[in-house]
Structures are given as structure tokens and as C-alpha cells.
């Protein structure tokens, strides 16, 4: 047992800090922004061209300086992503002392969480990790998932979200609602519905469930 418990974090309104400005820091930054993080601080004397561009676009806050203890103290989540092991260790130690979630690059033993390889298709989020044992294997599995769950799953997930919202309003019986949503998931994956009305689809699903029970 490796002690890791998988969760999905809501980052809106949470201070996320990245210490470092190289390739690893850039990957962490892109992952945070893709996840919708809206309070991101990156601290590094020098940064990549892409980090520079994103900072100029106002995507996050960039401070060109060395790490200081207050960065960890004010964070909710922090990445130690420099090429200096001593700095990464200091960030990890400060984060643990202040009760902050810490990810130290390539040092899972100094981390309180690890970042999985992620495939995003709108509301659909697929995450893969081998708990630090082999990032290459995580990437390989991620590529397989990207091929299996293509861009159409973004629309599938969006349709099912809209349908779920309507079922909460229109179907009071929880067992019936679960049956309709289960059938909807099967239906949405099997058929390509480019033009459809959510209420009509819900009515059709409900009738099909009703016929099964009659």
C-alpha cells in the first residue's frame, strides 16, 4: 500500500503557488490553468517564454525573485518545481509545517500529493498515476485513454449534465431517476445526437424505463 488516496480538488478561489520557472513549472502551471485555478502565483527569477507570455496575458501572477517562506505560508497548494534540490526541500518542509498541500518535483517522498497524468474532455476527467513509480507508464496509459475517449466525449458529458439537471426537476423518485440516467449514459455513448431536445430525450428515456417495468 502506497498511502495515496485519489481525490479531485476544486481550485477556484484557492491560492496555488509554483516555485520555479522551467519546463516542470510550466507543466504544473498549464495544468492548474486548465483546471480553472484563478489565484495562481509563480515565483522564479527566470521563466520560460511560454510562462512569460501567459503572465503578460494576465493568466496568473508572476514574481521574479527567489522563494521565501511566506510563499508557502500564504498558499493552499504549492509546487516545488525548481532545479535546486535544496530549494525544493525547503519548500516541502515549509509547506508541511504550515499544513499546505505540497508537490515536490520528482520527489514523491517529500510530497503530500502527486500530480496524475490527465485527459480532459469537458466535464469528463480521466486521471492516471502509478504513484511515482514510472511517469513514463502514466504517459503511455494517458495516450491510450486519449485515443479511446476522443473529443466527442466532451459533448457527451455536456448532454448528460443537462439531462441530469432536468431529471432533478422532473423525476422525484430516486430509483426511477437513477434508471433513467443509467440508460441515458448508454444511449449517449452509442448514438450520435447532433440535434436533440433535452426534454424530448428525457421523456423518451422515461417511457422506455416505464415499459421495462410494465
Automatic annotation (TrEMBL):
The keyword NADP does not apply. Pfam families: NAD_binding_7. GO terms for molecular function: ferrochelatase activity; precorrin-2 dehydrogenase activity. Keywords: NAD, Oxidoreductase, Porphyrin biosynthesis. Its EC number is 1.3.1.76. It catalyses: precorrin-2 + NAD(+) = sirohydrochlorin + NADH + 2 H(+). InterPro entries: Met8-like (IPR028161), NAD(P)-bd_dom_sf (IPR036291), SirC_C (IPR042518), Sirohaem_synthase_N (IPR006367). The keyword Oxidoreductase applies. GO terms for biological process: siroheme biosynthetic process. Pathway: Porphyrin-containing compound metabolism; siroheme biosynthesis; sirohydrochlorin from precorrin-2: step 1/1. It is an enzyme of class 1 (oxidoreductase). PANTHER family: SIROHEME BIOSYNTHESIS PROTEIN MET8. This is precorrin-2 dehydrogenase. It comes from Paenibacillus prosopidis.
